Amino acid sequence: MNDTQLNDLITWLADGARSAVRTDRFMAETCERMVASGIPLFRVGVFVRTLHPSMLGRNFIWRAGGELQIGSMAHGEDEGDEFLLSPLRQVFYHGTEVRHRINADTASNIPILTDLRAEGNTDYIALPLHMSDGETHASSWTTRHPDGFSDGQLDALRRIMPSLTRMIEIHLLRRTASGLLDNYVGARAGERILAGQIRRGHTETMQAVIWLSDLRGFTALSDRLQPEHVVDILNSYFDCQVPAILAQGGEVLKFMGDGLLAVFPVAEDEGDLTSVCGRVLEAARASRAAVAQLRWAGTNLAEEQFRFGLALHVGKVLYGNIGGGDRVDFTCIGPAVNLAARLEKIAGKLSRTVVASSAFADASAADWADLGEFPIAGFAKAERVYGLADEDLNPAGRASRTV
């Protein structure tokens, strides 16, 4: 062991590991410094629980000479055999370390040890990460050295753990904050909030394609079904849209009951407008197909089928912090959003799934059907409305009306 390098590593961690700001670089540099100090590491794993609607936790795996791998564990996976048989379970629930020498006789009923033996590892130790809030997370350390870890090397690992744990906690808190903001306000808004744009009234103007949709017949559905069933339906319904929106570069800003507001940013010079509109239409068609396949059958109820309406428009939106007192919301407002909301109502009256303003239809390379011109409440000029030509037209819905 090189005590000088080991002490330098502990000092570097205590000083904030400022030469490695990103999590992947921090993990790699920490492990490289440990190897340089005389700890013959081959594989290092850090396993942390996190706050996320679909993930129970994350894992970060470093291997000597390889890239850092980042994975996740879904809610419920901690009830599976792989986790129940893992040494990490004891670390998480009892906060104690676990040691296994790995050889030909290593118990084969522990999947991780079987995998590690196949990789040529000879020794394994799992150590708890005791966080400042009382929670315990876990780490694992392996070596390929023929003699395994020496007592001195294990003592060195234990010496490093307090400083390492504090830094892991900092990275975990950062990732949790960023992840929660992504989940609740969207990636674009989350980046701005973390960058300090948190003052009420702090807004900017953005050119965007606006996506505004809602579920047809939701009020009647809510009246007939138990609230928990309605929640299940809404989650399944939004699953039909959100992945498609995100895959095409959109950002979901808000869920409003059964309504969904999303934006697709457009370059200031609008040079990419046709491309953005094309991606929006891909998301719209994918969402339409997914909703058409959505089924739900509750107790003593006939199978439910669902339809939704979607309005697409292009315009400038005011994007930022709006609210009262100390409660603010990161959202977008403006005449363009209001027009999209009116268009969505027209879609319902015309029994159409997807409708678009002339601004969107003119900018997109799609086959549109002219549905007529409609006066819009609150707007001085009537708006010509278009529907996708592959949907059946509803002639009775063409009559001029105010919505």
Automatic annotation (TrEMBL):
<feature type="domain" description="Guanylate cyclase">
    <location>
        <begin position="209"/>
        <end position="344"/>
    </location>
</feature>
<dbReference type="InterPro" id="IPR001054">
    <property type="entry name" value="A/G_cyclase"/>
</dbReference>
<protein>
    <submittedName>
        <fullName>Adenylate/guanylate cyclase domain-containing protein</fullName>
    </submittedName>
</protein>
<dbReference type="InterPro" id="IPR050697">
    <property type="entry name" value="Adenylyl/Guanylyl_Cyclase_3/4"/>
</dbReference>
<dbReference type="InterPro" id="IPR029787">
    <property type="entry name" value="Nucleotide_cyclase"/>
</dbReference>
<dbReference type="Pfam" id="PF00211">
    <property type="entry name" value="Guanylate_cyc"/>
</dbReference>
